[in-house]
Amino acid sequence: MKRILLASNDPACLKVVNEAFAPDCKVDAVVSKGQLQDKVSRKEYDFVMVDIGYLDIQPDKTVADYCKDLQCFWRNNPHAEIIVLTPPERIREAVFVVKAGAGNYLTYPLNKDELLFVMESLYESLKVQSELDHFRDEAMVGGLLRMSEMRSSAMRKVSEKVQLVAKSNATVLLSGETGTGKGVIARSIHSQSARTQGPFIGVHCGAIPETLIESELFGHEKGSFTGAVRRKLGKFELGAGGTVFLDEISTISPAMQIKLLQVLQDKVFQRVGGERDIRLEARIIAASNVDLKSLSVQGLFRTDLFYRLNVFPIEIPPLRERREDIPLLVEHFLRQLNKLHVKEIHGVHPSVLSVLDRYEWPGNVRELENIIERAFLLERSHVLTPESFPQEMLEGPGQGVTFSLDISQPLSEVRRLALDNVERSYLKALLTKNRGSIKQSASHIGITPRQMHNLMNRHGLRKEDFKSGLSAE
């Protein structure tokens, strides 16, 4: 319930305010400057509507002076929005007060529709600003790849669990290695839920300093700590009607674990520096790349919080355990890249798919996405060819000058790839012998240092990797 303080000696004002907001808002009215000071010093309000005659307006006052005058309203109401009530002939003075920090002004006689518009605009602008602060650095999100399209049985099971839990409001705990796609799964749950029209807000707990995470999640009131120059809505408040995704939940401090546990139990929270309870109306999805149950057994994570989060657990398998999904993921990434760039690449060379299937993928789906994007930017043809991928991937550990033959390719293509493989292995052995010296290596094979540089760039070799006399691989 919003709380409004009206300070005006115009009897019609109180009637208009009550008509506009009763019974959903509590309205206190005063008719003198003394009563105004007494009310704002003893009670907390969301909006203070004050007649300009109650302010100390002087011709020689600056905006800074008016700003100091407004501090008396904010001392006990740091989050309050001030609306100046003024006769039309004093609008110029009201504008100075607005410049000093008041939210807006209204002219007499007070109009119900104008009042509602100004009040709602002030609230919405505050909410939008808080949302912009959160989303400003967030990267654009492409279309979600439907998990039901995946070929692996492991991901089809994940898809079934997502469909089961999406329609509920149950808290979900996603677990899996870094890069397996926990954020994508969280978005998928949100998009299939009844909350899909609400916001989806992701919070990377490990990336927020411990001193700021409470403010990030719960918000803070103006003046609640040094640097809190305005009220800020937290992610739990911004996520009302939607979903809040808490990634890397294992990184939060023991003190924050206690506060989060209380919020999940009571379904209410307070802004930092605030006294009012705010109802938690966002669904919580948490994720961790470490086993929270093991951490709780070791005493490194609260057991009671683990069980509060672990209402509906979903384990996401690493990419190396679902290699049959790799071609579909590659197609998906290519579709997204074709939309973002003025470029059309429609497929992948068969030898590349063979290499991708053999690779261990320590970085999981995220690593695959990054490698495909790099190859996309380097590729000059209409399919991704081996030349656009890191040679280390094509060779594989311990392969040396050996070359995996693919008889589905034309003989000319096999010859070219084999020649590249031999040439790169030769250069590596040469640079190893000469400890990375480009001048000595170029002299040994009778070419210029510039030509040697070009050969190394072509094969992705760096002289620094050979300084010790041993190849980096």
Please give a structural write-up:
It comes from Desulfonatronum thiosulfatophilum. InterPro entries: AAA+_ATPase, AAA_lid_NorR, CheY-like_superfamily, Homeodomain-like_sf, HTH_Fis, P-loop_NTPase, Sig_transdc_resp-reg_receiver, Sigma_54_int. The longest helix is centred in the first third of the chain and has 24 residues, at 112-135. With 473 residues, the protein is of the alpha/beta class. Helix 3 (63-74) links the parallel strand 3 and strand 4. Helix 1 crosses helix 5 (112-135) and helix 18 crosses helix 19 (449-458). The chain has four domains: 3-135, Response regulator (Rossmann fold, 3-Layer(aba) Sandwich), CATH 3.40.50; 154-317, 3-Layer(aba) Sandwich (Rossmann fold); 319-389, Helicase, Ruva Protein, domain 3 (Orthogonal Bundle), CATH 1.10.8; 401-473, Arc Repressor Mutant, subunit A (Orthogonal Bundle), CATH 1.10.10. 45% of the residues lie in helices and 13% in strands. The protein starts with a strand and ends in a 15-residue tail after the last helix. It contains 19 helices and 16 strands. The strands form five sheets. A five-stranded parallel sheet has the order 2-1-3-4-5, with helices on both faces. A five-stranded parallel sheet has the order 7-10-13-6-14. Strands 8-9 form a two-stranded antiparallel sheet.
